[in-house]
Amino acid sequence: MKIIKKAILPKGFQANGISCGLKRSGGLDLSLMVSSVPAKTACMFTVNTIPAAPVILDKEYYAGNKLFRAIIANSGNANCFTGKKGLKDAQLMSESVAAGLGIKKEEVLVASTGIIGKPLDIEKITRAVPGLITSLSARGIDTAKKAIMTTDTFSKEITARLQIGGQTVTVSGIAKGAGMIAPDMATMFVFLFTDALVSQSALEKALRESVDGSFNRVTVDGCMSTNDTVILMANGLSGNAAITGGKDLRVFTDALNFINLELAKMLVLDGEGASKFIEIKVKNARTVIEAKKVALQIANSNLFKCAMYGENPNFGRIVASVGASGIDIREQDLKIKLGSLKKKKIDVEVRLSRGDAECVVYTSDLTPRYIKINAEYS
Q: Helix 83-101 to helix 53-64 angle, to the nearest 10 degrees?
């Protein structure tokens, strides 16, 4: 497997990103990603019970169709808590792209990110769509990846090339996210593209398992978004024999797992105001679920995160979090090891003496900069 630390679209995919005026800064805020042929698609969405309008619409489309041609995404406005108008605006986004591409609206997925509770200026988007389509290109991913950013300080992107059945297969991904990071299915925006030919069931299974081992194991601030969306499109243009299981599926899944874990780590590295990247490994738990529960309890502790920012080896913050997780553990069975707090990357190891299961979770510290960013975000 060859890893390229930038987004390179697979065969048959094009993209573009422009400014349509949603961001007050005038920055890029509208992106479009298109497959030249219908692509088998797997999706995962936030479990927040007040989902944004695009999430509601995408779930409706996805329930009746697994072949998609395009994703349109805007930043600068979340189109959430916007009532019937918000849902209509999301529909207009898909309809405008469908009209321009000559496809069905149900083949266009929609994503929005930004401020919650403000009406979306849909006319700015619909006016911009024709130009967005006209300038689609394989290199357009370079602007598309920037147009989905909000408080991000860098674009998250990576590509893997691998051999399956004698054919070169490409898997590429872009992501956005720096705050409101506390996943429970997937998180933020993650758009994944591959030219592999994969069965629908294998594609969905691969994405579920990959998300569980990557995006569901990162947290920045313990706050779940209303707009989180992960989309994986596979258009089958690489020419490989259909992947349904066995060795070929393992090779494909390994690549997807690598891509998603790297993107997940980038999200933590870019955590709002973060100065530390923290890896928490909980070992000797009874189950992976138990280990993950303990690790996330520590990772989401503001007291722990503040201690890491202050480079303060206060074991008490970890001890309290382990106890707060609800597991039954004796004091003498708990072992804690902290790596150097002076480094950018901090390693935390917690041993529970309860079994052989383990889990790793990634988080960042809590800094005054995080407070400033979110106090002023509007």
A: 50
